[in-house]
Amino acid sequence: MSLNKAASINIGDELAPRVKQIAQRQIDAYSGVRPKSIHTDVEWAQKKGFSAPLAQGLMSTAYVSQMMVDLLGEGFVRGGKINVAFIKPVLAGDTLTMHGVVKSKAAESDKTRVTVEFWCESQRGEKTLVGTASGLAA
Amino acid sequence: MIEFKTISYDLVQVGEEFKSDDFLIKPEDVETFAFAVDDHHPWYFDRSPYGGPIAHPVLLANQALMMRHSRYIIPAGLHAKMQMEFVEPLRAGMRVRSYGKVIDKLEKRGRYYMVTEFETKDEESGTVLVRGQFTQMLFKGERHVA
To answer: What's the mean pLDDT in A47-76?
Structure first.
């Protein structure tokens, strides 16, 4: 396994934010279209009190993964971890901005585990996800 | 023959086990996932450090979450927390299955939750690919979906 160098990653480093515009078609592709689903049935979502269908929270874990693969490459694909809480719903049509800041570096066997604190913010200024992800560096 | 019941806090038991259906990861699944989450990393479509293309690490998270549907009718409910550990890369051509177990159920500020741990394995080799746990909100008692 070829790992990125821990020495090139510093505590406090900010990852380049990633912006995601959540289209209904993407939610449909992620969750699978079915009736009476708050994710893919507009009328049903509205009946349940939402202005639009909800994206599954899990979709945001994929954005975390994307940023971690960018940061650590193989050290995230094999040995990566995600630990997040979904704190506000994400609606179809929302624009999310993912933020990450390197929180710690710790020895793990002969490698270094790099942990990043993540949060995701909607265009309403609400945090929708908070948590951490980590992976291995040399 | 499975008798599906609507899931509830009262019904779910700590120690209860789940198993997903098996799933063959196909190239179009990798492509659909890339579209869904807008992540077209070249490792998912071309060569990767692992030889051929791999799949997005989070590709199978929904399979784990959907395990409960193999026994219960699941009304919409908040997905509160998710933990995942990526043990081995996923690849198209793998036939995979998720195995889970309810490890806790709890009440917090008037809301009810279940915690399920899971492992997703390559069915052919038995290799663990992803492991983790998720916390889902539940209704307390019996409730009709529609």
So the answer is: 96
Q: Which two tokens stand for residue A136?
A: 């291995």
Q: Which two tokens stand for residue A84?
A: 């997040």
Other CB atoms closer than 10 Å to residue A25's CB: what's the count? 12
CA atoms A19, A17, A131, A107: torsion sign? positive
Residue from B66, B82, B115, B127 to probe the interface with A (highest A Cβ count within 10 Å):
B82
**Residue-by-residue DSSP string for A78-128:** TT-EEEEEE-S-EETT-EEEEEEEEEEEEEETTEEEEEEEEEEEETTS-EE
Q: Does B124 touch chain A (CB under 8 A)?
A: no
Please name the helix (run of DSSP H) or strand (run of DSSP E) that holds residue A132, with its range, or none.
Answer: strand A127-137
State the average pLDDT over residues A53-75: 97
- Residue A65 phi, psi (nearest 5): -60, -40
Domains in chain A: ranges and CATH: 6-137 (3.10.129.10)
- CATH no., domain B5-26+60-138: 3.10.129.10
Q: Is the pLDDT of residue B146 over 70?
A: no
Contact (CB<8Å) B62/A58: yes
- Phi then psi for residue A2, to 5 deg, are -100, 115
Which residues of chain A approach chain B closer than 8 Å at the C-beta? 1-2, 20, 26-27, 29-31, 36-38, 48, 56-59, 61-63, 65-66, 69, 73-74, 76-86
Q: Where are the domains of chain B?
A: 5-26+60-138
